[in-house]
User: Fold these one by one.
Assistant:
Number 1:
Amino acid sequence: MTAIRYITPLREGGSVPGLVETDDLGTYVAKFTGAAQGRKALVAEVVSGELARRLDLRMPDLVRLRFDPVIARGEPDEEVQAVLKASGGLNLGMDFLPGSVGYDPLAFGVEPAEASRIVWFDAVVNNVDRSWRNPNMLIWHRKLWLIDHGAALIWHHNWPGAAASAGRPYNATDHALARFTDLDKVASAAAELAPRVTPELLREVTALIPDEWLDGEPGFARPDEVRAAYVDVLTERAATVHERVTMSAPRTADAPPEWLRIWVEGKNK
Ligand SMILES: Nc1ncnc2c1ncn2[C@@H]1O[C@H](COP(=O)(O)OP(=O)(O)O)[C@@H](O)[C@H]1O
Ligand SMILES: [Mg+2]
């Protein structure tokens, strides 16, 4: 796809993605290579997002997006302008879900089986960006959709230590869906999904990363070597991470305040 119109920046999180119109008249959320998080955030989006989709978790379509900063000359914010100027060429587009709203765990209950699959998936890709403070999920047509995997795969910022990181635990205490699951249910989700995360599937997923986001990675001679490294770490994590998910008791902040409990009990008398 080629972006033909820059509509507006989206300011909720840190990376300032932009809403763009493309040459197929679609509307996409553009994730830019020139953002502070760099091209690795886009690699994390592709690998995690395409893995999620293959595990039947709801994920908007991802596309390769050509972007020419010239189309965004009218953007007045200097900081955003700097990101756009640094992002000429290939970027990532995510299908925009019009009319979606940010997920709120207090307003929208999620089936335990679905919540458990998502928590397990986030443990596999080491996603630290799905907390109740910042859920990075949307409700669209009454269903839950995953977005924003830019902070996942944190070990790819330090490849020499990545093999050791594959064995690291995942603390799901603050996960936005923790209240709908528990360790036994996460283990059941792992039993169901882990056998599907084969090296073949991971090779299919990593083949979708553009070479130019992998070129020049220190310690690797070719993009395919980097892809193989992603396959190795994710194969290992998918097989064993459920043994290392931790989740402490529900936060007391989840309990109703004392005055409300007394008031409700009074009403129910
Ligand atoms: N596919 C999408 N459809 C609709 N809104 C989106 C979509 N992707 C992102 N957004 C909105 O833009 C915000 C920022 O996007 P996000 O991917 O979370 O980037 P970041 O947190 O790095 O800034 C989201 O919180 C959400 O409100
Ligand atoms: Mg976000």
Number 2:
Amino acid sequence: MIRLITSGLIVFGVLAAVAGLSSALFTTNPVTISGNTFSTGTAGLGIARDWDEKYEDSIKGEMFDDLVPGGDPAHSDFWLWNRSTAPIELNLQTELLKITAPDDLKQDLMIAFSCDVGNDGPGDRDGSIPAMSLADWEKKGVIGKLGILGENGPPDGKGTDEARCTMTANLDEKSNAQGETATFDAQFTGEQKL
Ligand SMILES: [Ca+2]
Ligand SMILES: [Ca+2]
């Protein structure tokens, strides 16, 4: 039996503004997300921008305003922590919510995630989700394989209870999108590992 743990889930808003080569002017503000927390039990996830900051239910997103077709990807780092008081391990998964973008940008803006559990480099518990377009994220819903957090421990930036994660955004090299804006939230959940 799988027990879904959706407490302490997390949101992290991102704006990906796409710049043309010659001009870039964006007025959109970063999205702040809150109030999307569901609590179903004793377990939970915390999220923080860095491990020495306080883990929260949600953190403010970032805005990227310099993506160009085929250009350097943008990165956003954050940490996830198993703050469950029960001695359980969590399968990490994520879903992009509230996606807004013009159709062409939805097809062309690629989003990937990776998590290094323990902040110690590659290992059995680490996970990643390869780059997918916003359109595919929208279609697929919740996606797992982001890693496995060990039982709760102190939020000290060490141990399998914490993961250092990165979101990567890049614009397909064939994209014609210019001066468009995409927004979305990333919501992380932990599913009890049995
Ligand atoms: Ca690792
Ligand atoms: Ca720890």
